[in-house]
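Mods, move this if it's the wrong board.
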Amino acid sequence: MPSLLSALFPPPPTFTDAQLPAQTGRVVLITGAASGMGFEAATILYFAGATVYIAARSQTRCEEAITKIKNSNRQGKETRSEKGELKSLVVDLADLRSVKGAAENFLGRENKLDVLIHNAGVMQPPKGSKDALVSKKEH
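Not the wrong board. Structure tokens:
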């Protein structure tokens, strides 16, 4: 159990992206990668050499995240010479049809998936809903 002092002043991490081994050849899909923790994970894995799929609700959000990662200040600080690839994958997790379409799109582009980071979800869906279509029918 952490003490109050260590909770208020956490110690430095024992493992950082500097110790992450090269991820060249790995395919990673991250939902919610257009912002927040998903964006940070995508950035770290891209600079480690992975092919990273930025999964977000719109093509615009995907493209903005890709541009932001490529233009980030990390480029000058990174010692690795080879960066990975960034690709977009539009998916709305509130709509199961969108999820199926995104899965089919991904399978048409890749023959493997090494890492899946589920970082996105639907906040406070209507009670009893299963996806956007069911929610609309009930209300």
